[in-house]
Each structure stands twice: as structure tokens, then as C-alpha cells.
Amino acid sequence: MLSLSLAMVGLILIGFLSLYKRWLTLAGALGMIIMGIAIVYAFHIAGLIAIFLFFISSNLLTSVIRRNQRTTKPSPEQRNLVQVLANGGWPLLAALGQILLPSPFWLGFYIVSITEATADTWASEVGSTLGKAPFHLRLWRRVPKGLSGAMTGIGSLAGMLGSLIIALDSLTLIPHDSFKNTLITICTIALLGWIGQFVDTLLGAYGQARYHCTVCDCFTDKSHHCDKPAHHVGGLRWMTNNAVNGLSSLFAGALGGSIFLFWIN
Ligand SMILES: [Zn+2]
């Protein structure tokens, strides 16, 4: 109970910091605090550290890259409740699942969905800023930056690094008795996260809604461009960038959970 109380105090402090730094809106900060309490209850402080590694590393990466590059991109927007749930919804489901129906499945689901989200954020932030023209998986050629479904070498490398950081942290959550088991654990988690991130790119290439803007004659993922509605030219209308992120995290989580069912007993 002491750790739960300490975690609650910590979460409220981080909530205030996120508001002060304009990382989160009020509803986003409240959602984060409730999510954090459920996570500590299910997966203890070690579990909470995993999701904070994701949130903090992603925010720091975004801030540092955009400051150094002086890109024309706006600074990272304040995340609202929907965006907090878009990234934290599956981990929250895993925490609730663990509380109501304890099973190793939820631990695997939790860790791997966070690993995937970290890999994806790192890959797209680093790739879109430092990478050259990304390679599109469906068009099978290089395309201008900003189109979903494309990947860069440096972005993939960053995604691998992001995966590795969560995989290292997951050692505090997964039983491992020997050096060999430790290595297997790290490699498995990192690989699952990276596979999930690749599925994210595939979904972005084949399923995500695509639009054409007649004003600037460009293809975009956004339904509005140059202050006007853009024409839908392909992909599923409902499959927005958030839907792609949510589906690939779900895929990665379900894959990780299924493996944990056989792995940890
Ligand atoms: Zn346009």
C-alpha cells in the first residue's frame, strides 16, 4: 500500500509538471493519473516506469530534435485525453485485465504494446527529421516525407533503439534467472516491438485513408489540406493515423501476450 500511495503522489506531481510544460491538457493529465494508478496496482512501480520511459523519451526526443533542427514543424502539441488513450489505452486495458483476471497474457500484452508504441514514435520522429526521402512499402519507391507507410533507415534504427530501451526495463518485470535467459528476454521483447512497428508501417501503406489536395497537388493522410477538404483517393476512410497506431499496438500486445502465456508460468 505504501508503494501505491507513493506512486499516487508521484503521479499527481508529474500531472502538474505535464500541465506546466504543456505536454498534456487538464483532461489528458487526469486520464494519465488514473491510468497510472491502475498500472501500479497491476504491474507495480516497475510497470509504471516502462510507460513513463515511453512518454518521457518520446516527448524529449520530439523537443530536442525540433529545437536542434529548427524545422518548420510546430513544437509538440499538448496531448489531450484522446491522444493519451491512443498511446496508453492498450496498456490501461492490460492493467485492468491483470487486476480482474490475472494472467501472464496481460504482462506480455502490456510490455509489448508499450515497446511497439515506443519503437513507432522513435522511428517516425527521427525518420521524419533526420532521414532522407523515405521508402514507401506499397508504392515501392522513395516518396516525399510525411506520407504514412514509408520508412527510412535511420528511423528503423531509432525504432530498434527505442524497443531496446523498453526491453531492458522489462527485465524488472519478467523473471530471468541466467545470463542466457536475460539475453533471450531482451532480444524477444525488442524484436516483438520492432515487428509491431513494421506492421504499423504496413497498415499505414495499405489500409490508411489517403487524400489528394487539389490546391497544392499533393497526396496526404489528412482529410483537410491547405484549409480545404481533400479528395479521398484510397485506403479505408475510418483508418486514420490514430487508428493505425491503435491497431498495430493491439496486434503487438496480443502477440506478446500469447507468447507470454507459454513462456511464463
Ligand atoms: Zn494542399
Automatic annotation (TrEMBL):
Keywords: Membrane, Transmembrane, Transmembrane helix. GO terms for cellular component: membrane. It is found in: Membrane. It holds the Pfam family DUF92. The keyword Manganese does not apply. It is a multi-pass membrane protein. The chain crosses the membrane at residues 33-61, 81-101, 147-167, 179-199, 243-264. Coiled coil: none annotated. InterPro entries: DUF92_TMEM19. Its main location: membrane. The keyword Transcription regulation does not apply. Belongs to the TMEM19 family. PANTHER family: TRANSMEMBRANE PROTEIN 19. This is DUF92 domain-containing protein.
